[in-house]
């Protein structure tokens, strides 16, 4: 077998997340395709956490329902996940965890390893049992240790040479124990290749796109699952000359963005649904004052606090209609790490060019699940500041009427400029007005921007064969699992293609309507209760879906899950 699906489970605080990520990074550096996702409770200690790592010689799209290896750092992991193992799978567990093999299945193998004892006997701490377990995993796979040893050096170098050396010794001890006791017990063999990959998640990719675009100001109040955007941008702040502010709340964050945009600085914040709720008034200010800001909403389940560490796609309508009144905006929902990078870069250009807020809709699954991707192609990625001018005449009007709805903009301090950014309705010069003619003209001027913006965005195209039994209509992270579902359906004699809708506002209603009119069976796939994308399509095209596959448990789809439900609808 040339594919591995591994689950590491334990309590928060046992190093589940770090172990899973380091394993994924190890295989990525070995030139293998990796997809790794984490599930964790919203508490610092306790609660059940697990990390799934899928490794293959071929590109992988999403995680799998079933796994063929479990590394259990506690008994609860065995209890919860032994049913997820394929026949002939393996459970690696701590010999002192109280696991009674006879209580479980007889078609899988249980390998008792002194995970904690090995770490403690060698002078380490109990948490280092995960390193013992990883050594055991490598032995069963007959995989070299050199790459992982370098990762240990990178991760623990700041803690000193002794800690690095100790972790390497515990890793080797786990490897040797498994070789002596369980050699040949597992059929999967993974061989390194000469392929080169990056290993990153959606939040990483968005940050890289922001860096490439020249983002110089970040104001954010951390909110799961967007918090890593703040951390990543802070880590680059010194090298890239970025001001990063950990604000007191989301209201301060969005208002700082409007100030930075007014000053001419490319700026960004990240949040989730609850934080975005607090930002809506500031979004309206940016729309009315025609200020270019970028806000990333990494969605989680609501309403209210909801499920802070889980995933959903239920903020679409919230973001589309954020703040009172009508104003131009762009809403984009990338579907994978590649799209996160390129759409983040494009967001800053389009925000500047059309002088409006751009909202990037991600979700926990896309934001935090890591995948191997090829190096981004930076060719042609040029910064476009739009109608940002350095000289103006005596009669300069900040909000001058124009054919495309976009007015020339100058930065504060430019001689002859008018430096106004009011939340009130205003005339061409920026002064407050309540005259009906001026109000109507200014509203029409702002909204005219949407025509040019729509023309600049690439219309969606079908992924897969045109003449298919079913068309899966989806958005965001569900794109990946739909790709996996299409492959599984094909093995069952069902052909399917995918219509991924990336741009929600403005909306390509003509092109989407034409594609759906040709579809034999239109099946909506999204992670929310009300089918928000299907509702948007109905609103814009008048077309209903023929069926829906919806999920709102806080857990992401798998390809098999979608495929099974699609077959029921055909």
Separation of termini? 33 Å
Largest sheet: 8 strands, mixed
The helix content is: 25-40%
CATH superfamily of the largest domain: Pyruvate-ferredoxin oxidoreductase, PFOR, domain III
User: What is the name of the CATH topology of the largest domain?
Assistant: Pyruvate-ferredoxin Oxidoreductase, domain 3
Number of alpha- plus pi-helical segments: 19
How would you write the strand order of the largest sheet? 6-5-4-1-3-2-14-7
Strand content: 15-25%
Low-confidence stretches: none
Q: Supply the number of structural domains.
A: 4
Structural class by SSE content: alpha/beta
| Overall CATH architecture of the largest domain | 3-Layer(aba) Sandwich
Rg over CA atoms: 26 Å
CATH class of the largest domain: Alpha Beta
Give the tally of β-strands: 20
The best one-word shape is: globular
What's the average pLDDT?
A: 96
Give the topology.
Layout: E1 3-12, H1 16-29, E2 33-39, E3 46-56, E4 67-72, H2 75-81, E5 85-94, E6 109-113, H3 115-121, H4 129-141, H5 146-156, H6 161-182, E7 198-201, H7 202-213, E8 217-220, H8 227-240, E9 243-246, H9 250-262, E10 267-271, H10 273-289, E11 294-299, H11 316-320, E12 330-332, H12 337-354, E13 358-363, H13 364-368, E14 370-373, H14 436-447, H15 449-456, E15 462-463, E16 470-474, H16 478-490, E17 496-500, E18 503-505, H17 509-518, E19 522-526, H18 532-541, E20 547-550, H19 559-569
Parallel strand pairs: 1-4, 4-5, 5-6, 8-9, 8-10, 10-11, 11-13, 12-13, 16-17, 16-19, 19-20
Antiparallel strand pairs: 1-3, 2-3, 2-14, 7-14, 12-18, 15-17
Helix pairs in contact: 1-5, 3-4, 4-6, 5-6, 7-8, 7-12, 9-10, 16-19
